[in-house]
Design a protein that fits this description.
- The structure is a single chain.
- Helices cover 50% and strands 11% of the residues.
- The chain is an alpha/beta fold and 387 residues long.
- The chain folds into two domains: 167 residues, Rossmann fold (3-Layer(aba) Sandwich), CATH 3.40.50; 203 residues, Dehydroquinate synthase-like, alpha domain (Up-down Bundle), CATH 1.20.1090.
- The strands form two sheets. Strands 1-8-5-4-2-3 form a six-stranded parallel β-sheet, sandwiched between helices. A two-stranded antiparallel sheet has the order 6-7.
- Helix 3 packs across helix 4, helix 5 runs parallel beside helix 9 and helix 8 runs antiparallel to helix 9.
- The longest helix has 23 residues.
- It is globular, with a radius of gyration of 20 Å.
- 53% of the residues are buried.
Length: 387
């Protein structure tokens, strides 16, 4: 027996206006200061006010949200008593909104205690997720990633009860997004789609979603990076991010995310940029073991008609590298400006944190500690994985 979880999704032009149709009394908007400054928070508040709701804004969420910030947000929620919580922004505010929702309703639980085996019994509020980037897919999933700034580590957790009630996917909110953020978040969506398709928890419901999302990103990401006002590309990328979220949210991820979470936390790198770094290397590693279903993705995206699975997988890995280079993604750890001494010092922690990540255990090929350390070494140098 398995499950498929999904929010109610409103997408396309003017999707944001759907907020005017909601019923409720108080809405807490969880976001960041930049979106307040840009006036996007005001647009959301205006729609909620038309629905007759009072609003309060918690805009302290930082990139890669911290445990400590979400604890402050939960105290704001406890004071305001919202019946709607709105996660507005990229993956960071949306992840933070899930944690705040859980801690608001279950103050007896530590965030690290939230997991699929614990019944939360949420009933005081509902969650709306409104992405302003096209990549994380957090609007469609029950997972969340927080950073413990005291221990300098990320932890992934979640519960099916934390799937947003409503996802608003309005491509106008991503219009004019800077090229670097467009690239980082778009490559995150690509990593979600590819890893979600090959994970050992894959299923018939997630497969088609992951295939379509990968095809869309491979087709439209470069255009969206090149021209922030290309609304055709923006709309397809916004849809791809949510579709990938629905896919991997019901299938889990793999080694690229486990390694990327570890690397991103220890070296303070953006999530999308970190996981995308490891994606082509993990495709190669998995293919070397005769595993993965990467050929399906390559064929569906029109990259090859080869029925040789290894050959088609190599074509996909090459296309991923080509796309990453085209949008300015660093291709090895050294290109992040991290010197070898600092990398070597952190290598044991990189391995430890990756092995403890929830995504690690659903990869189609799982390395032992020695192999994992070797993989990190290869990625530092940009060497092709030959084992």
């Amino acid at each position: 027996m398995w499950y498929f979880s999904s929010p109610f999704v409103v997408f396309g032009e003017e999707a944001l206006s759907h907020l005017e149709q909601l019923t409720g009394e108080r809405a807490l908007i969880v976001t960041d200061a930049t979106l307040t400054r840009l006036g996007i928070v005001a647009r959301v508040e205006e729609a909620l006010h038309k629905a007759g709701m009072q609003t309060r804004v918690f805009d302290e969420v930082e990139p890669e949200p911290s445990l400590q910030t979400t604890q402050r947000g939960a105290r704001v929620a406890a004071d305001f008593q919202p019946d709607w919580i709105v996660g507005l922004g990229g993956g960071s505010p949306m992840d933070a909104s899930k944690a705040i929702w859980a801690m608001y309703e279950r103050p007896d639980l530590e965030p690290t205690e939230i997991n699929p085996m614990v019944t939360l019994g949420l009933h005081k509020a509902k969650l709306i997720a409104i992405p302003t980037t096209a990549g994380t897919g957090s609007e469609a999933t029950w997972a969340l990633v927080l950073t413990d700034t005291e221990e300098r580590r990320k932890f992934s957790t979640g519960s099916r009860e934390l799937v947003p009630t409503l996802a608003i996917v309005d491509p106008s909110l991503t219009q004019g997004l800077p090229p670097r953020i467009t690239a980082d978040t778009g490559l995150d969506a690509l990593t979600h789609a590819i890893e979600g398709y090959v994970t050992v928890w894959r299923n018939d419901f997630s497969d088609g979603l992951c295939l379509k999302a990968a095809q869309l990103v491979l087709t439209y990401l470069e255009r969206a990076v090149r021209d922030g006002d290309d609304m055709e590309a923006r709309e397809h990328m916004a849809n791809a991010a949510t579709i990938a979220g629905l896919g991997f949210g019901n299938a889990n991820l793999g080694l690229g995310h486990a390694m990327g979470h570890s690397f991103g936390a220890l070296f303070k790198q953006p999530h999308g940029r970190a996981v995308a770094l490891f994606l082509p290397y993990t495709i190669d590693y998995t293919t070397n073991g005769g595993l993965g279903r990467y050929g399906d993705i390559a064929r569906f995206a029109g990259l090859t008609d080869s029925r040789n699975e290894e050959e088609a997988a190599r074509v996909l890995a090459a296309r991923v590298r080509e796309l990453e280079q085209a949008v300015g993604q660093p291709m090895c750890i050294a290109e992040f400006g991290i010197d070898r001494a600092a990398f070597r010092e952190m290598l044991p922690k990189l391995v430890e944190y990756a092995e403890q990540d929830t995504q690690f255990f659903t990869a189609p090929r799982i390395p032992d500690s020695e192999e994992l350390a070797q993989m990190f070494e290869y990625v530092y140098e940009g060497r092709p994985i030959d084992f």
